[in-house]
Amino acid sequence: MTDQNPVFIPGPTNIPDRLLNAMHMQTRDHRAPDFVDTFAPVLRDCKRVFGTESGEVIIFPASGTGGWEASITNTLSPGDKVLIGRYGMFSHRWIDMCQRHGLDVQIVECAWGSGAPADKFAEVLLADSNQEIKAVLATHNETATGVKSDIKAVRDALDSAHHPAMLFVDCVSSLASMPFEMDRWGVDIAVSGSQKGFMLSTGMAILGVSQKALAAMEAAQLPRTFFDFRDMMAANASGGFPYTPPLQLIYGLRESLDMLFEEGLDNVYARHYRLAEGVRQAVRAWGLKLCATSPELYSDTVSAIYVPEGFDSNELTAHAFNKYGISFGIGLGEMNGKAFRIGHLGSLTDVMALSGLAAAEMAMADLNYPIELGSGVRAAQNYYRSTATKIAIDHQGGVS
Q: Rounded distance, CA 262 to CA 45, Å?
């Protein structure tokens, strides 16, 4: 029965039965009219989640990493200069990808636990008098450290320097869970995936692309075939794909969008904040510290938590899985062995969050952590009780 335990990793997330059922379908003809009727509205409705009216949504059969690659290969050329801050594992991996593609990567080194260095970016952009920097890259939600960055501040840095560089944002672990305003923040490419806030299996890179980024395609000379925006958009114009699409995932995405819109995006964001704050209350009660260095950086989808000196976070996550059949995120990169992560995004309720906190407490108590058993759960219970709203139950017994 342990396969029924929810996961508390920051993605892939728990998949609701409603979405499993939507993806549980027989093979269909992806060139038939009924697929066209499904796919075109999916692309249109994804724009609401990205917060764009003027941009286009492009979907590739890939994870978010494929989306990173698509963003740079469709808009840049070998030797182009890009600016990026390294403040976690996923910004580090995007840097590595850019370097492998022959880009000139200007890196702003940051402490892990901090966010996108908008002030440092502003200095670099002002100093770039020849405007050689073609793109600024930022990770909205750094999954390794539980840090949410201020993307508007990065856009303000570009605007204050009157710099024409494009702005690319990794929002894989934030989209459909926290507010994202692609148009208002002036984001040129936003990269997400199917396996986090959309609550689906891994397998789709979902990108929001501005008209400015699309205009950059013709001059871009990095090679691309599978990830070519032009091929995909030409096929999308008639409701199709240039190659075989991930059909089941697309039908699942249709249902996921329906679920998000039925709950209401503002309610989705409020639920994630509430879940996250309950976890943060528990962390304080345990006497532990978050990796995020200040409250404005706290992520509403994942909390990275330092273990006490002398303890190994990998031993904790392994023990929780082996004894209680529950998964927490391991520490990545500089956090390896120092921190574990509690994912609190997607298909999750406060009752489910409490079960994860209780399991974490049991695992820590088993390993003689200096915590009081029940303290974190009690703190989260008090917060959830004080912020709970009445849940409506329809006549068929469903919760809404």
A: 13
Q: What is the pLDDT of residue 398?
A: 44
- Domain residues of the chain, as ranges? 17-261, 264-387
Q: For 204-254, how does the pLDDT look when each residue is reduced to its tens digit (9 = 90+)?
A: 999 999 999 999 999 999 999 999 999 999 999 988 899 999 999 999 999
The low-confidence residues of the chain, meaning pLDDT below 50, are: 392-400
User: Could you tell me the two tokens for 339?
Assistant: 């921190």
Instruction: Look up residue 333 and give its DSSP letter.
Output: G
DSSP 9-75: SSSSPPPPHHHHHHH------TTSHHHHHHHHHHHHHHHHHHT-SSSEEEEESS-HHHHHHHHHHTT
Integer-rounded Cα radius of gyration of the chain: 21
Residue 390 confidence (pLDDT): 62
CATH architecture of 17-261: 3-Layer(aba) Sandwich (3.40)
CATH superfamily, domain 264-387, is: Aspartate Aminotransferase, domain 1 (3.90.1150.10)
pLDDT value of position 17:
96
Instruction: Report pLDDT for 397.
Output: 41
Place of tokens 């990275």: 304
Contact 127, 116 (CB under 8 A): no
- Close Cβ partners of 227 (under 8 Å, ≥ 6 residues apart): 60, 62, 66, 69, 70, 73, 74
Q: Which tokens hold the place of 241?
A: 């794909």
Cβ burial, residue 120 (10 Å; 0-12/13-18/19+): middle
Q: Are 290 and 387 in contact (CB under 8 A)?
A: no
